[in-house]
Amino acid sequence: MATRVVVNVPATARRGEVIEIRTLAGHVMETGFRRTERGVLIPRDIITRFVCTYNGVEVFSAELHPAMAANPLISFTTVATESGTLEFKWSGDNGYSATQSAAITVS
Amino acid sequence: MTTRRGFLLALGSIAAGDALAQLPPNIAALRQQALDEAVRKVTGGAQVRVGKVKLDIPPLIDNGNTVPLTVTVESPMTEADHVKAIHVFTEKNPQPFVIGAHIGPRAGRAKLATRARIADTGKVIAIAEMSDGSFWSETVSVVVTLSACLEDGLI
Which residues lie closer than 8 Å to A20 by C-beta, 6 or more apart? Predict the structure, then answer.
C-alpha cells in the first residue's frame, strides 16, 4: 500500500515561537462498519496511532479511532525550542506504518 | 404451493429480522451507555465540568464523512498548569471515540484541529484533561444531513 504522508512545518522560526504543524496521511480509514453490496462486512483498516517527536522528545501523540475521516488530518502546535528535526510516525492496522521528517531552523 | 400472501409474510419477517439485527431495541439508551463508558474510560470517573474548552464545529453538516473540527482549551500551558490531553467523542457513532490527543507544556497552545466522521444528528463532546487532574468539556449539537459510516452500507 502506498504510504503517502504530508507534513507542513515552518522552515524557520524564532526561539520560543509557537508554531503550527499540519499533518496529513493518505489512508482510507475503513471503519469496519460498512458492508459491500453483497452484505459482506468490510474489515476495519485504520491508522490507530500518531506520534510527533522534536529532536527525539515526544511533543504530541494521538490515538485515532474509526470516527476519524479518511486521510486523517491532524493539526497541532509546538514551541520552537531549538533547530533540529521533527519526526512524524503513523502506525495502524495490518502493519501500516509511515514516517516523515521535517527540519526546522530556530534563530 | 407458495401463496402470494404467504410469500409476502415471509418476506416481511425476514426484513423485520434484519432490522432487529442492526438496531437493537432501546438504541438511545445503549448509545448513551456507550458514550458514558467511553468518557469514564478517559476520566476514570472524575467529574467533568463545563467550560475552558472551545469546540469549533459547523452546526449544520452537509457531509458527515469529513467534518472539520477545532478544539482549543484556555490554559497558560506552563510546566505547572497545562493541558495533558484532549479527547473528542460523538454521541451517535457506532463507537463514541474520535481522537485522543496527548499534549504538554511544549505545545505552547492547547489547540487541536482534525476531521471526523459523524454518523447522525446529535452531540459532539470535547473533553480536556488538565495537569491538576481536572476535566473540562464543551458539548455542541450538530445536524447532519448526509450521514457517515452507514450510507453506502445499507443500499
Answer: A10, A75, A76, A77, B111
- Which residue has better confidence, B44 or B6? B44
Question: Class assignment of domain A5-106?
Answer: mainly beta
Contact across the interface for A69 and B107, Cβ inside 8 Å: no
Task: Kindly identify which residue of chain A lies nearest to residue B94, measuring between CA atoms.
Answer: A33
Residues of B in contact with A59 (CB under 8 A): 103-104, 106-107
Nearest to A67 among B97, B107, B111 (CB): B97
Domain residue spans of chain A: 5-106
Strand residues in B6-134 grouped as ranges (E)? 48-50, 53-56, 60-63, 67-73, 83-90, 97-102, 110-116, 122-130
pLDDT in tens, B85-134: 999 999 888 889 999 999 999 999 999 999 999 988 899 999 999 999 99
Tens digits of residue pLDDT in B35-75:
999 999 999 989 999 999 999 999 999 888 999 999 999 99
Q: Architecture of domain B4-146 in CATH?
A: Sandwich (2.60)
Q: Rounded to whole angstroms, how far apart are CA atoms B142 and B26?
A: 22
